[in-house]
Structure formats: C-alpha cells, structure tokens
Amino acid sequence: xxxxxxxxRLAIFVLAIFVGYYVVWSVTPALHTPxxxxxxxxxxxxxxxxxxxxxxxGAGGEASxxxxxxxxxxxxxxxxxxxxxxxxxxxxxxxxxxxxKKSK
Length: 104
Hints:
79% helix, flat, NADP_transhyd_a_C, mainly alpha, cell membrane
C-alpha cells in the first residue's frame, strides 16, 4: 500500500507546524533577539529565491501555465517573507527597548 505524496507532504507540514510552535515558545527571552536576527537572515535568503521564481520566464507553449504558477507562488512567497522580515525587525526593536534604561 503506497502513500499518496500529497498526504505525505501534508503530514510533514503539520508536524513542522507543531515542532516550530514548541521550539519558538520555549525560547528564553534572553535568546529571543538573536533568534529573530537569524530568522531575518534566513528570510532574506528566502526572498531572493522568491523573487527569482516570480521573475521566471518560459519558452511559451504548454509550459506557460507552469510559469504562471511559478510567478504566482514566487509573488506570494516574497510577500510572506517581506512580512516576516519587517515583523522580525519590529519585534527585535521592542525587545531591545526593554533593555534600555528608563528615563525619569
């Protein structure tokens, strides 16, 4: 009995959600800012790949439908990565503000 590849990938995705949730919520506050910096760096690499996918061009013919899917997926990935990067900078800014001395 073979498992459908879509079901297999969906199961991996769901497991990754659970693992990611428990990993992120168990981080101590002292490690949160460096973790966000690494996350921003990873997202910047992802956005480069997303922009390359969004700028894909095909030879025409029957592959043009696949090119449109690639462009759409690249645009969506670029948007999600941009939200992640800017959100990470905002969270990092708030975390660093917690360590500043309060003025009287």
